[in-house]
Structure formats: C-alpha cells, structure tokens
C-alpha cells in the first residue's frame, strides 16, 4: 500500500421530515423547530423576542404572560411531582421577567384508566404549590384520551403576572463586562428524576430542586435594578440557558468550571452515567446577568434568600467569541460549552 | 469526589506538563486509541497545555464511529419490525445509516429503548416472553464480556426471544493497520485502559517489539493521560520501545481472565468492516456457531443487507494523524454533529465531534499535510 490509507465516510442526513424526541430537549433541534415551523407563521414581534415570557402592555399595566406543558415521568419523585412542577415552572417563567405571579390556568390531558387517587394527589399538590406562591388557579380544562394515546397525565399551565415599574429584563440588554450569577447547585432535578426512573440509590437524600423563584427574584431586584436578564435553566440545563443568551445578545460568555456548584451525588451520578451536569435540568435555579457595579450587592441578596444560599459568581460577558460560551477548566485551558443537538445521550463506555 | 479528584488535580497536572515539556527534545507524535481518552484530552485542553512538546493524534477507538454502515442498516431493519423490542446503548441511536437512524425508527413507532447494560435487555426478554428482544452488541473488547455474559445467560436459561446484533471490534488489528501504512507518523501509543482491563497488555508487547514503538497503558482522567504521555516521551527520548502500565489501579498484564474465558466461549474472531476505514482481517468478534440461535442477523434474516459509502471527508487523514479535524473544509459547516458527513463526527467520542464540541474556537494547530 502506498500513500495514505483509503478510508470512506457516511453520507449526510437531515432530520427534517419527522418529529423526534430531541425536538423537545430544549437544545438546537427545539430552536430549529421554533424558527422553521412556528415563528414564520405566527409573525409576532413579541414572540420573536423569544423570552421565557411575553411582556405586554394593557391599559398602562405591564403584564407578563407565559405557558408551559409538563410531561414528566415518573409523576411523583423525590422533591416534587408533576403538579408542583406545573405550578412552579410557570411561576418561574413569569419570575424570570421580573413579574409578580398573579393567576394561572391549568389544562389536563388525562389517559383513560388513570387512577383517580393519582389525579387527586396531583391536584392537591398543585393547590398547595399555588398557595405557597401565592398564585390563584382561576381557569382550567380537562380532556381525556383513549388508553394508550397518552402517558397517564399531561398538564399545561399558563400564567399572568405584573411587571413592577422600572423592571426590564431581556437578553438584548446584556453587555460585555456583565457578571453571570448562578443561584445554586446545578443538575439536582434531572438527576433526581433519572435516579427515580432508573432505580439508582444515593447515600444522601438527593431531591429535585423544584421551587418557585419569584421571591428570590424580588429580593434581587430590591438590591439593584441593574440586572439585565435572568433565565431558569430547566431542560437543556445551564449550557442551553447561557447559549441562548450569548446568541440573543451577540456576546461571548466565559464561565469558570470550578465556580459552578455541583452536588457530590449529582457529580457521581453524572460520572457513572456519562452525563455532563451542565446539560442536566433544574427546576429551582436561576442564572442572572448583572451590571458589574451591582454584582456584589445582588449576589449578597441572593445568598440571604433560602433559595440562593449557594449562589455564586460563575462568569463574565466578553466582547470576544460572540455567540459562544467558553468554560475555563481548572487546568487553565478553555473549551466550548455547546448547546446539544438533542437530548444528552449516555455514552457506551 | 474520592477516586476522581485525585486524578484531576490542577497542580499535579502542571508538574507533569512541565516535566513532559522539559523531557521532550523534539515534538513527538503520539496517538491515543480510545475515544474516551480523546474525549478527556480535548475536554480538558491537554494539547493546549503541552504546546509543541507533543502532537496528539486521535485514533480510531470510538466504537460508535467505527460501527459499519451495513450494521446500522441491519439494526434499523430489525428495529422496524413491529413486535421487536430493540435495545441499544444510547449514543448508537443517532448514528446515521443509509436512510435514517434509530431515533427515527422510534419516532415512526418502533420500540427502541436505551439501556446501560445488556442485562437490561435480558430482563426485558424475560418479562416479555411473547416479544423478540434484540440487543445491539457493539463496542471494543471493553463491552464484549458483558455482551458475552448476556448471550451465555440467555442460552443457560433457554430464552428463545432474546438475540443480539453483534458488531464487536478489536484494537490490535487496527493499530497494526496504522503501523503498516507507509504514511504513518505515530511514534508512540497510549493503549486503551478499559480494553486492557479486560485483555491485559501482552498483545501490545508483541506490537511494541515488532514495530519498535512504545506503548503506555493509560486511564481516562487528565492525570492518567498526562502520566502516560510523560512515560511515552521518556521512552522515546531514551530510545526504548516497551509496554508500560500507567493505569495499574485497573489493568494487570494478564487482564480479567474470567471475562476473557467467557468471551472466548461465546465469540470467535472474525473479519470486520470498520466505518471510515474499511475491512480489516480478523479484527472483530462474531457469535460462535453454538450461539447461532441468539444471532439476530440469522434470526431476522438480515445477513444479506449491504451498504457502501461514497468517499466524502478527510477522516482517513484525521485517523492517521495527517490532518486535524479543523483542517477539513467541511468541518463545522456542512459537517456537524447534527449532520455528520464522517464517522469521527458521529459520536461524542469521535475526534471531529470532540473538536466541534470543545475546541472549534481555536485556530488549527499542529496540522501537517
């Protein structure tokens, strides 16, 4: 044989003709779906902003308006259930716009044969979660599908909240030099769910971090109004939230690996399962972009709040590498933290 | 975290890097075989730390990437049969075949499930006696013992609804192929730690002696890899070509004898096709004749499915260390993890995918035509 070996390659392949699970992952496929299918037909300048919530003005009041659907399995898990998730998830989307949550709707898609006691437990949990916020569930809907046509129980919640005077949070405001604050450890929710599903046991009580964040947000805004934007890094994890902001704001973001809080049991589970905590879902954490001069005051306010006790300064916004999130490793090297194409897949070995 | 943080200590890493840079009198070209090692090297930016002391070339040890097209097509054909439960390691689901991938089979109603172990597939077979359960048994010597165990157990229990689609490959024949090529630039190898945990490293002693090339068995944490690189550079500077073990907490010279015995009982060595490389004689495993009843290719009559791939990208040059992924004209543009054009872009362990994920912000380094 002379010269280089003759190797060959597979042909390219596009997944454009059918919905795959990755379209719901919060990663690149989800973004593609929005841009290719929904935005061109809905043609709304407000929707095109792609914030976690729409902020609309009605009669002089600025209302935050958002909706979310919940398809979690198992329905009940350590630290929460589909009911508390459905309330807190929508409350958090409102809170990320700086809004005080006011009213929720609740839509249920039930599968024929669902245990009545299960539904009762979920409703009770929703009532309790709403009361704790407080937010009122004022309208709703129920549909039943044939057995085999649904997975027990799906919930959709829509929420309305009021944005206080002087509060304006959107990625478009993010500037180089801004500080990136994270409210606590990442990956707790995703790993708690996975552990429940796969029957993995921990020596400690790892639970979902499912919680309403509007109180924390209010405390932060009371410390300073110079917060540019916030995200709750749910599906797709911290990496997706940061990537979205980097792209939307046209800036680079550099984060410090050693500054990001990750619980030991989450790290352990991720190591065993070949997952990266940066891509694992959270349900009670937020990441905030704050003007440099206000960062310390906001961080202190976060740490005084029970849901922000472990808050940390994890990175800064840069005018280099626009649209990319870089991570500085403990070795002093830098690597990209990408948005995943679809769901994170466990590796073979 | 115990047993991990010790192997990720930045201060110790710095000391090893300094020593490697002091020892290397010229830039040595080293290859890590295993995709897991590629992943760590690229994720931690170890090449960046080493500067010009060492050039790392990423070998063909990503089991997902090298699984041949026709096997993926066979997997898709079997998984598309309505009553079949098709069980696979997660990252095989996205690998493109000729007309689609397993995710799309799932989206079209196929029962495709992700498992961490073939034993999960075995359990599914016991629980669903009326449905054929097929496990996609891919990988190097690392995953072979567990897959052998599954077939062995199924035979012992007389499970009639369990079978495996086998595409196992072996590391030493691929190294031989690279070393036999006149274009080879690789001067030392980091031998794959988990493969050697199973197989030991006697095979690598033969290779070291025959080709006068040093091997160091390496682990998967940053310090494991830096220690392996340090030992390789020292051997090269001293003109030695031996096998050393830098992963002694897992690897012994003889390997895991019980695992090897079970593998030999269930599998026999056979010719295999490698995606992106082509056929390599005696480079993989197939089920022995006594296990024909558990061979999914025979059970579902898909043996005749064949496929060929048009030459498109530069994976040949990447896998030989003649080019870096970033030198490819379609890297990151037409070829991305969502639309892979070449085997190394398919799995996160592939060299191109690892570069795309972690290092595409860095200009091409160390490439030589």
Question: What can you tell me about this protein's structure?
Answer:
The complex is a heterodimer of chains A (349) and B (369). With 349 residues, chain A is α+β, with helices and mostly antiparallel strands. Chain A contains 9 helices and 14 strands. Chain A folds into 2 domains: 110 residues, 60s Ribosomal Protein L30, Chain: A; 166 residues, Phosphoribosyl-aminoimidazole Synthetase, Chain A, domain 2. Helix content of chain A is 30%, strand content 24%. In chain A, the strands form 3 sheets. A 7-stranded mixed sheet of chain A has the order 9-11-8-12-10-13-14. Chain A has a 5-stranded mixed sheet with strand order 1-2-7-5-6, with helices on one face. In chain A, α4 links the parallel β5 and β6. Chain B is of the alpha/beta class. Chain B folds into 2 domains: 184 residues, HypD, alpha/beta domain 1 (Rossmann fold), CATH 3.40.50; 150 residues, 3-Layer(aba) Sandwich (Rossmann fold), CATH 3.40.50.11740. Chain B is 40% helix and 18% strand. In chain B, α8 packs across α13 and α9 runs parallel beside α11. Chain B is globular, with a radius of gyration of 21 Å. The C terminus of chain B is likely disordered. At the A-B interface, α8 and β14 of A face α1, α2, α3, α6 and α9 of B.
How would the blueprint of this fold be written?
The complex is a heterodimer of chains A (349) and B (369).
Chain A (H helix, E strand, L loop, with lengths): L27 H15 L2 H4 L5 E5 L2 E10 L5 E2 L2 E2 H14 L4 E12 L4 H17 L3 E10 L7 E10 L16 E4 L5 H11 L15 H10 L3 E5 L5 H13 L2 E5 L7 H10 L13 E4 L4 H10 L7 E7 L6 E4 L5 E3 L13
Parallel strand pairs in A: 5-6, 10-13
Antiparallel strand pairs in A: 1-2, 2-7, 3-4, 5-7, 8-11, 8-12, 9-11, 10-12, 13-14
Helix pairs in contact in A: 3-4, 3-6, 6-9
Chain B lengths: L9 H14 L4 E7 H10 L1 H5 L3 E8 L1 H4 L2 H11 L5 E4 L13 H6 L3 E4 L3 H10 L5 E7 L4 H14 L4 E8 L1 H10 L7 E5 H7 L2 H10 L3 E4 L3 H17 L4 E3 L11 H10 E8 L3 E10 L8 H4 L15 H5 L31 H9 L10
Parallel strand pairs in B: 1-2, 1-7, 3-4, 3-5, 5-6, 7-8, 8-9
Antiparallel strand pairs in B: 6-11, 10-11
